[in-house]
């Protein structure tokens, strides 16, 4: 089960407000906010500049039905999840489920990720979420091909 860190997801009520703070910190490059109706969020990715394709993902809800809306209401925003890139999302989710980990979201398409990076894929990227026993939310990403 090989994996690498892809991004750390942070949730805020408004991406443009927090983007200004990141720019003030010196992170001037970021993808434009990209809505993903399947996920119910808009996302912007801030490269960490290490040349390893590792990002901070800035998320905001598209509407009140978004899965991050409750997170904002309860916590006011902040650290939401850690995402690891994998080659076989189905295999990873099967292994983790067999080990008793709690799947929050089965693998689904994540077209917003592909659009954010202008990836032309015949098979879109997929993501799945697991909640670890210590309440840390982990996302797994299989990039589209």
Describe this structure in words.
The chain is α+β, with helices and mostly antiparallel strands and 145 residues long. The protein has a single domain (3-142), classed as 2,3-Dihydroxybiphenyl 1,2-Dioxygenase, domain 1 (Roll), CATH 3.10.180. It is built from four helices and eight strands. Strands 2-3-4-1-5-8-7-6 form an eight-stranded mixed beta sheet. Strand 2 and strand 3 form a beta hairpin. The longest helix is centred in the first third of the chain and has 10 residues, at 15-24. The radius of gyration is 15 Å and the shape is globular. The model has no long low-confidence stretch (mean pLDDT 94).
What's the count of strands? Answer: 8
- Fraction of residues in β-strands: 35-45%
CATH class call: Alpha Beta
Integer count of domains: 1
- Spatial strand order of the main sheet: 2-3-4-1-5-8-7-6
CATH topology tier name: 2,3-Dihydroxybiphenyl 1,2-Dioxygenase, domain 1
In terms of per-residue confidence, which ranges show pLDDT below 50 for 5 or more consecutive residues?
none
Q: What is the CATH homology-level superfamily?
A: 2,3-Dihydroxybiphenyl 1,2-Dioxygenase, domain 1
Biggest sheet descriptor: 8 strands, mixed
Q: Given the C-alpha coordinates, what overall shape results? A: globular
Helix count equals: 4
